[in-house]
Structures are given as structure tokens and as C-alpha cells.
Amino acid sequence: MATDGAISGPAKSTPALLKQMGHIVPWTLMASISNGMVSPLGPFLALNYFSQQYTDLAPSDIHCELDSSVGYCQQALIDGSKLVTALAFIAPLCQFLTLPLVGVLSDGFGRKRTILLTYCCSNLALLFADLVIFFNCSFWLSVAVTPFLNEQVITIVLNAAIGDILDKPSRATGIGIITALDTIAYVIGLLIGLHLGMRTSYIVASGFCLVSIAYLVRFFPETLPEEKRSFVVDRKSLVPWAPLPLLWRTSVLWRLTIATALAAFIDSGTGRVMPFYYQRRMPWSARDGYSFESSWDFSLIFWFTVLFNKIVAASGELGALAVGRVATILYVIPAVMATHPWQAFVNAGMFAGPMSFALPAVAGMKSRLVGESEQGRMQAALSTVFVVCNSLGQIVFGGLFQSMGDPSAPEAEGSMASLGQTIVISNAIFALCILFVIFGLSKMVTPGGCIESASITAETAAEDSSYGSTEAGHHRASW
Length: 479
Fold this sequence. Notes:
By secondary structure, this protein is mostly helical. The chain has one domain: MFS general substrate transporter like domains (Growth Hormone, Chain: A), CATH 1.20.1250. Helix content is 73%, strand content 0%. It contains 18 helices and no strands. The longest helix is centred in the middle third of the chain and has 52 residues. 53% of the residues are buried.
């Protein structure tokens, strides 16, 4: 378990952290391999389903994953975009209910039980996708699970478990290491899926899922001792918004929350529209999707395993957060100008890694601002803000694509150019806003880039009485 110590201090080496995290590491690898095999196929599964209304071909003969430039696949792109936009409306409402509840359960019943429950429930979507592919069952069964339970729900419990195990200076680095390992396994899944085809990929992924469940039951550690669990069965503790006051307990927390909200909105909006943008701008197949994901993930692996720890050591988590925002601007400009898939691959390989610094940086900082018995609720509250802003970004940018990316609209090419300009300008504005917030936070940090423990202690003591915390005197100085 993590020991009490100073807010600031050197993080442990990567081998030491890997050893300390133990069985969490291999379980993360197995679960991510399964996810990597099928994630790039999800949009094409939707395209195949929606294409049925635009062609007389049998469902088994529709393969938009092989060539999405076919007429009926291009028509189905708009339907797929509408589905993503609809899910963006629904997901915040669903996860506003599930995320805080999962956080409360994690703090009350332990990390292992909660991860087992959420992992099994979230993979119902994989089971229903198998039924769609092999028996042409309703596609909507798979869609219905995703807004409530997905990787985001599992991540909040996993981050809390890492916070239990590691000492405070090592938490951001530990989350970064897990992110890198998760990405390595995801790439392995991508490479396996790239050579198997859609049907075989879903079969093998389902097998990996079953192995992951067995490993979770047998080997995954319970990181939160029973004496540190806190669960009060009352109406207040179970309402979805109960953990949210943790996010504005101090000025440091609410500033970090603002940075998280802004980054989640613009990143999800850009990520929402770019796959459709590429499919409209150039021939883009499932193989291109796999290659793009591979380039993106190799970048994550390199930056997180080689550079992230060094950046945090030199400039703190805030420095890593600032590097990520600059990288976002450098990414979107060539992204909207790309006309061939290989250009998108190279661009992603260069900038995807630092663009993902926000999650481990903010998660590491925020985990030090609350006590051990509140780690699950803090991660859940942070994820709630992330999911809501993520969905709002998808809604806004999804609307932009539907209005500017319709291939049947007059002057469609000119509209796509305008969409690209909108993506660049909006990213620049949001990056400036986030950098402004980071500048304000930089006045509250030590020369090493860590949040000042004195300011945390003073603010927490002043605000604890209004919050009603039972952990007064044990607050820790993490998106």
C-alpha cells in the first residue's frame, strides 16, 4: 500500500513501479488486447448495419470494412454519424448515474469486486456484437450497453487501485506506465485483428475476454484494505452528484477540473469528427483504420515509456499538461490538410503521445488532494466531468459534420474545407484557454512542478467543515 509522505518528492523507477503494481499489469495487458482487436471494427459494424437500407445485398455480403468508398457505405456514414451524436446525448445521462455510483462502490466494497462487476457488464456489448455478426441479431442490443458501462468506468477504479498501491509522487508516473502498457497491448490486439478479418477478430477477442475474467478472479489484488473502506448506505451517498463537491473543494481542484472539462470537450469533439473527415477526404478502409490506430498507439508507447517521466520530473504534471496542449495544435493543422492515409499515419505517430498527457497528469495531481478512502469517488467525480464534456464535444462537432460533411450536399468539397478550418480554429482557442488555466496553477506549485502542500493544507482545512468530510487532516495533495 502507499505510504504517507510528502506531497512532493522523487518518483520511483519504472521497474520498481511495475513490480509494486504486480498483477494489475498482466491483467491490463490481456484486457487491452481484446479491446484492441475489435475497437477499430466498431464503426464498420455500424456501417454494415446501416448500409442494409441502401442496397439489396444480403447482410453477409456487405463489407464496408473492406472499402467504405462504396456508394451505400458513404450513405451509411451520415447514419453512423447521427448514431454517435445520439449516443453523445444519452451517454452523459447514463454515466452521470453509473460513474459516481461505481466510485462509491469502489470505496465501499473494494477495487477488485468493483472492477470484476464493471468489466463483466461492459463486455456484454462484445457478446451482443458477436450475435450481430454471426446471427444478424439486432445491432441495438450492443449499442444499448455502451452508454452505461465502457472502458471509462473500468479506468476510474483502476486508477484508484493504482493510487492505493503507489506513494504520492509516483502516482502520475504509475498511471502513465499503465497507459503505455495498455497501449502496447492495444497495439498487439490491433495487429492481430488486422490479419484476421472481422468475424475471426470478434471470436478471438471474446476468448481473451474470458481469460481476462478468469485472471481477474484468481490473481487481481484487492488494493483497498477493509479498514480503509467507507460506505454509508443512505440516499445522499448514492445520488449521482454526491462525489462532485470533491472537485471544487479547493481552488487547485476546481482549476484542474476546468482544465479537464475544456480538454475533454475539444479532444472528444476533434476525435469524434476526424474518422468521418478522413473517410470523406480520401479512400479509407478498415486496414487504414488499423494502421492509423497503430501509428497513434506507437506514439503513445514511445512518449509514455521514454519521455513522460522525464517531462514530469523536469516541469511537473502541469508542464506535461502544457506540452499536450501545444501538441494538439501541431496535430490538427496537418491532419485537416491530409489527402492520403499515410499522411494521417505519420501525423498521428508524431503527436498522439503528448496529446494524451492530460489524463495521467491531472489524475496524478488530483489523487494527492484527497484521502485514501476517497480515491474512488475522486476518480468517479473527475470521470463524470470528463464524460459530460466529452459528450458535449461530440454533439457539437457531430452537428458540424452532419451540416458540412454530407456528400450529397451542393459544394460538398468547399464545406469540407470549411470544416477543417473550424477544427483548427476551435482547437487553437481551447488550447489558449487551457494554457491560461495552467499559468494560474503554476503560481501554486514548487520549482519542481508539484502542487504546494502548504496551500493545499490551508485551503482544505478552511473548506473541510462545509464539505462535511470525515477525512480531515488526511487529504492528499490527478485527468
